[in-house]
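Notes, Module 5: Reading structure tokens.

Key idea: the token line is not a picture. It is a compressed description, and you learn to read it the same way you learned to read a sequence, by spotting repeated patterns. We will look at two proteins. The first is printed below with its tokens.
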Amino acid sequence: MTRVSRIPARSAAIANVALALLLAGCGSSVTPASEGSGAAAAVTLENCGRKVVVDGAPEAAVGMHPAQTELLLRLGLADRVAGQAQARAQALPEDVAPLAEDIPVIGGVTPPSREDLLAVEPDFVYSPTTYEFTAEQGFASIEQLEQAGVAVYVANGGCKDRRMTGEVTDLFTDLENIGEIFGVEDAAAELIEKGRADLDEVAKALADVDKLRVAQVYVDGTTLQAIGAGIEYDILRLAGADNVYAPDQPAFAKFFAATITPESLASEQPDALVFSVYDEKHEAATRKYLTTTFPDMPAVRDDRLIAVSSADVFPGTLGNISIVRQIAEQLYPDAF
């Protein structure tokens, strides 16, 4: 777990712009910055095996995926976001999207190049995984960013040594740390409290259900992958699933996903299939593949094909919590 410690403040307080947009239907909101929050305190912490030092609350942050951009916006930090990366890969929720209208988009559907990222002059970068810093892909490495004076924070569940064992509740550690870094601890605490309450409510509803066998897959054309570890596995566990694929299986000893044959999935006869998609076209194509390839599978026969947004399975996103309920309600509608 990442641990945060305070060191003496080195610069003056920075006032937040108060933002108050309520999210219709799901109870989340953009939390106004409380009076006195945002003080420019310096923070040091351990993150992904590195020491991260932030000299005062960042003023030019970049969310390296829409999920991280959303979290910054919900903490009331729109005025401190200098760029939103991969913004065209996934739309922001409708209630926070207006807050990002004037924030530069960098990277399109992929992480930004080193040059594009540094062009917005960030002082803090928040990423879901370490992949976004792969120099071989032309992205800025963590070392290059640090040399440029940019602090880098990776979601706990996306750290290289945690990608196989990440849990949904890693998000709460991220919220504590981001709240500390930006001086918005109260706003972070509200999101944590709501998240814990949501998970507790789902757990209570599922206390007496007979668990269904559920396989999580990803389909790209005709390539079929099984998901058996990491945050994705924990999401299904919290949603009351009896996971067909699990971290203790040899196929997932080194990576959370493994390419499988249709025959091997068919032999498991899962009661439900959960699959992530990046847009409506991808969802339609995946449903067509699953229904035509496995017409006699219980999951297909009983119409338990559950699509979730690919953004919501990224580490360090509020979607990790919301899709626990989404999946649980579709698996066990009578429990809610």
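Here is the second protein, with the sequence above and the tokens below, as before.
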Amino acid sequence: MQYLELSENYFSAVVALANSIHGDNYLSLAQLQLMQLQGVKQGVNASFIAIDRDRVVGYRLSFSPEQWQIDHWCSEGSWPVVVKQMAYFKSVGVVASYRGKGVAKNLLRLSIQALQQQGATAGLAHIWRESPGNTAQLYFTKAGAKLINIHPERWRHLSETLGYNCPRCGQTCLCSAAEMALLFAEL
């Protein structure tokens, strides 16, 4: 297994993997190009991929502090750190046959190391609560993240505006998000 910083050479593979896991129209090439830039600060890239046998088997998209949009899905007043120290964990995905083998954990560790170099002391995520067996929230809790808030129908607007097809709900996503924060000092 090889872990590399996300680069343009792997964009198509990451888009395909993300859409196969999270649903059609979850991620486009144009969106990924912008997201990758949101994870680069001070020459340090906080987004990574996992490759096995020349195939992308996992990815983690992370945004640098002050390089992501705080919106109404964010409970800023309840965060454990100030905005300028808060990174954002946008998305993670691992091929099914590689899950449970430490791929997501290693991708998270690499992102945290990079984000710390950029000045982050914590990372925020909106975790898909309706993932099969709620594995997404369980994974992030096991990593040390704490629940901040629950946001019903977090991704509905993506279905209505971008044609996102949720793998659970179909054309209109009604899934909720667990807003969670991971303090890097506690790791």
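Summary for the second protein:
- The first strand starts at residue 2 and ends at 5.
- The radius of gyration is 15 Å.
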